Amino acid sequence: MKTIAIVTAFPPSAGSLNEYGLHLVNAFAARPDIEKITVIADRFDGDLAELDLGPKVEVRRVWRFNNPLAGFHILRALKSCAAEGALYNLQTASFGDCEIPAALGLLSPALSQRLGTPSGVIMHNLVEAVDLSNTNLANSPMRQKLVSAASYFVTKAMLMTGFVTVTLDSFWDILHEKYKSTNAFMVPHGSFPLSSDIKVCALEDRPRTVVTMGKFGTYKKLERTIAAVQNINSTRSQSKAIKLVIGGSDHPAMPGYLQALETEHQDDPNIVFHGYVAEEDVASFFTQARLAIFDYDSTTGSSGVLHQAAIYGTPAAYPMMGDFVDVTEREGLQGFHFTPLDQNALEDAIVSCFDNQEQAQSLANNNLDVSKGVTMNTVASIQLQLLRKTKVGHFNTVRKAKNQALRLQEVGATHVPI
């Protein structure tokens, strides 16, 4: 298999998982056995130029968020590019935050498999692992029930592709126990590469800054984090004050959320709204900070932002809930933990980071080491082997090994495909 298509949100768009898509494409492009990669990407409004990723990579922007015909455009692009295999980089809301376009888009992998293109899915979350009462569906119990019911059939359809990989063991458990899947695998999230010109300095040499990044307004809110930083600063001189830098954008379901907060706190010089963090600015965003804060009401999948913080040597503060438990207990990432939804506990976590620099540096060093364990190159290698096995119709017995990358058990031998 020398030519592949990767269906993903892709920068410079701000679609969910676009950074992951970029690093995945780069990992495939670095392989000498891959000759051509067609990125079937989301359309975006703006005049930003496409990234120059070399002669192997062609980007075709064919689908829009919340367009119920996104799947049709993807399948048409797959047919025209004639790739030998297709890999989808998805989460449940990749194609929309409205039920119909979201569900229709997620049927694309099964349809491309049925139409003759060996296809696989990297699925970053599952509806069963999400507390819908803490999402944009919080005020609509009927829609919550509808989404829960529909997700079963969408997931069953997705498992009709060649394979589905998930980034957390708990997701594999759901697919194995509830759906009795035989073609689902756990492949860790993988760490993004660190450019050789990026300097990761010690925490004590960084400014007194904390950062947070995401799509805000639903289960990722900022009121507690802002209040926690302001409360800490109220007892300190300006020279000892902590600056909070907020990177990211509104969740599609909450337009105007960040602008309203920025207006409310425009007189506080220690609350900075950075806006969307472009790929070339991610390194400086994290390396300026002594702590990355993840104050979520619930979780929806292995956090790419948490993994980004790890590779830039920035310790994290996060609640011990949901998927954060998985990354702590099964991947080995560590952080300053606090009780979910508790502002006082969050304040204590922030203060602990600044008052216990030795502990903070130890956590940062641990996470750097963990990040080196499974790189995006390893993830790409595993995904490519699975695509090749899909092409020849030849999956064998699968067994799960906790805290390790995928293992395939073949006739008389077990190996990690890399």
Please specify the SSE layout and strand pairing.
Elements: E1 3-7, H1 18-29, E2 36-42, E3 57-63, H2 70-81, E4 85-90, H3 99-106, H4 108-114, E5 119-123, H5 141-158, E6 163-166, H6 169-177, E7 184-186, E8 209-216, H7 223-233, E9 243-250, H8 257-264, E10 271-275, H9 282-287, E11 291-293, H10 304-311, E12 316-319, H11 322-331, E13 336-338, H12 343-355, H13 357-371, H14 376-391, E14 398-399, E15 407-410, E16 413-415
Parallel strand pairs: 1-2, 1-4, 2-3, 4-5, 5-6, 6-7, 8-9, 8-11, 9-10, 11-12, 12-13
Antiparallel strand pairs: 14-15, 15-16
Helix pairs in contact: 1-14, 7-12
Describe the overall structure.
The protein is α/β, with parallel strands linked by helices and 418 residues long. It has two domains: 229 residues, Glycogen Phosphorylase B (Rossmann fold), CATH 3.40.50; 169 residues, Glycogen Phosphorylase B (Rossmann fold, 3-Layer(aba) Sandwich), CATH 3.40.50. The protein is 37% helix and 18% strand. The chain contains 14 helices and 16 strands. The strands form three sheets. The protein has a seven-stranded parallel sheet with strand order 3-2-1-4-5-6-7, sandwiched between helices. Helix 1 packs across helix 14 and helix 7 packs across helix 12. It is globular, with a radius of gyration of 21 Å. The two termini are 15 Å apart.
